[in-house]
UniProtKB/TrEMBL annotation:
Function, as annotated: Catalyzes the attachment of isoleucine to tRNA(Ile). As IleRS can inadvertently accommodate and process structurally similar amino acids such as valine, to avoid such errors it has two additional distinct tRNA(Ile)-dependent editing activities. One activity is designated as 'pretransfer' editing and involves the hydrolysis of activated Val-AMP. The other activity is designated 'posttransfer' editing and involves deacylation of mischarged Val-tRNA(Ile).
Keyword Membrane in record: no
Enzyme class: ligase
Alphabetical GO biological process terms: isoleucyl-tRNA aminoacylation
An annotated Gene Ontology molecular function: ATP binding
InterPro entries in alphabetical order: aa-tRNA-synth_I_CS, aa-tRNA-synth_Ia, Ile-tRNA-ligase, Ile-tRNA_ligase, Rossmann-like_a/b/a_fold, Val/Leu/Ile-tRNA-synth_edit
Entry's Gene Ontology cellular component terms: cytosol
Keyword terms: Aminoacyl-tRNA synthetase, ATP-binding, Ligase, Nucleotide-binding, Protein biosynthesis
Designated name of the protein: isoleucine--tRNA ligase
Species of origin: Leptospira barantonii
Lineage of origin: Bacteria, Pseudomonadati, Spirochaetota, Spirochaetia, Leptospirales
Annotated catalysed reactions: tRNA(Ile) + L-isoleucine + ATP = L-isoleucyl-tRNA(Ile) + AMP + diphosphate
One Pfam family named in its UniProt record: tRNA-synt_1
């Protein structure tokens, strides 16, 4: 009896399966050989050839950005897709997937600009585009290597990139066709805008964080009625230079109230108490004012030589404020809609980087958030500020820069879903698709 058996009398009763698999992974040596065997064997191509003529299963690979190495989320995505393709192939399908990469958009540009550092200001647009293309190519290569390391089913060189000339040409071709058929138009409309990145943001690109905003009650003089004002409330003083109207609701009752200082203020009856609580200004109701009377009024802008007109909309509620809504069609969705119906242009005296343009010469070049205190001071100097305070609330921020967004009218391309019954056709097509999960 050996020494081992003496020490381990039960070892002969432990029956372990025998395997050719090594006890240690030793990936540094074995992985390159595995990858080479996978490539040289062309297993994916051979499996597809074997399944020719069978029922097709094609998995569309929604492309990741070519702006960095794969992280855990990318890896999970690719491995799950690969598992589906392999399982379908084993089930007898002609299964296929072509990996793709999104080579456009801000993630790549932002990273390139970050890498350039101070040199970014000296880099022209053409050079920047080429640097972005080079950067994208680099990470298409690196991410392709990761696909090989995952032993995914894909054929090297058989990929798609959104920056490929043929791919871009097809996009332009389809866009041109849509434009010629009348589905696409160019227009100015308020959108969420990043003044740090100088670009529009979709709803999905917005994150909400706590933000401290000014809360101001502003008086708009009623033209032809000395000492009478329409009282509005806003948390965005910087949008006041773009004010073109004051919006009311015909379903809400309004009155003229008198303050202890002798001023007459127009506001909603249902908000008089909350206005007093917020401002500390006592209000004594003088008389009601009808929608017809409101419609006949004109208001003097508090610090610009311009007339603001009365409008009406159902978006005006008694939830907060005064029931008289400061309306800047170039800086709000509801403002835009009521302004459009009244024939008002979506006026926005703000450039791509959030600076006032020469359309507001008083503060030309000033960034809008920096201008808030100056707007407030201007209102004080003009005697048009009833009350000022600050409050913290949830505010939209860019998911990329983590900085606050603004709402700003810019020229955009729009797709008309209601043209040629496209909405109905799309909904009908959706009904014919099997959704998983349903």
């Amino acid at each position: 009896m050996s020494e081992t058996q003496k020490e381990n009398p039960y070892s002969s009763t432990v029956l372990l399966p025998k395997t050719d698999f090594p006890m240690k992974a030793d990936l540094a040596k074995r992985e390159p050989a595995q990858i080479q065997a996978w490539k040289s064997g062309q297993i994916f191509r051979k499996m597809k050839e074997h399944r020719k003529g069978k029922k097709e299963f094609v998995l569309h690979d929604g492309p990741p950005y070519a702006n960095g190495n794969f992280h855990l989320g990318h890896s999970l995505n690719k491995i799950l897709k690969d598992t589906i393709v392999k399982s379908k192939s084993l089930a007898g399908y002609y299964a296929d997937m072509i990996p793709g990469w999104d080579c456009h958009g801000l993630p790549i540009e932002v990273q390139v600009l970050k890498n350039l550092g101070k040199k970014a200001r000296e880099t022209g647009p053409e050079e920047l585009r080429q640097l972005c293309r080079n950067y994208a190519e680099e990470f298409v290569g690196k991410q392709s290597e990761d696909l090989s390391r995952f032993l995914c089913f894909w054929e090297e060189g058989r990929i798609y990139k959104t920056m490929s000339p043929d791919f871009e040409a097809r996009i332009v071709e389809v866009f041109g066709e849509l434009f010629q058929k009348g589905y696409v138009y160019r227009g100015k409309k308020p959108v969420y805008w990043s003044i740090d990145l100088a670009t529009a943001h979709a709803e999905a690109e917005i994150e909400y964080y706590p933000h401290v905003s000014p809360s101001i009650y502003v008086k708009f003089p009623v033209i032809g009625a000395p000492n009478r004002f329409c009282l509005i409330w806003t948390t965005t003083p910087w949008t006041l230079p773009a004010n073109l109207a004051i919006c009311f609701n015909k379903k809400i009752e309004y009155s003229i109230f008198k303050t202890e200082a002798g001023e007459e203020l127009i506001l909603a009856d249902g908000l008089a108490e909350s206005v007093t609580n917020a401002t500390g200004v006592s209000l004594n109701k003088l008389k009601p004012i009808s929608s017809d009377e409101l419609a006949a009024l004109k208001f003097q802008h508090p610090f610009i030589d311009r007339v603001s007109i009365p409008l009406f909309g159902d978006h005006v509620t008694l939830d907060a404020g005064t029931g008289c809504v400061h309306t800047a069609p170039g800086h709000g969705q509801d403002d835009y809609k009521v302004g459009l119906a009244a024939g008002l242009e979506p006026f926005s005296p703000v450039d791509d980087y959030g600076r006032y343009t020469d359309e507001f010469p008083l503060m030309q070049g000033k960034k809008v958030f920096d201008a808030n205190p100056e707007i407030v001071q201007l209102l004080k100097d003009k005697g048009m500020l009833l009350h000022y305070s600050e409050f913290e609330h949830s505010y939209p921020h860019s998911w990329r820069s983590k900085k606050p967004l603004i709402f700003r009218a810019t020229p955009q391309w729009f797709f008309q879903m209601d043209f040629n019954e496209l909405r109905e056709k799309s909904l009908s097509a959706i009904d014919g698709i099997q959704w998983v999960p349903s």
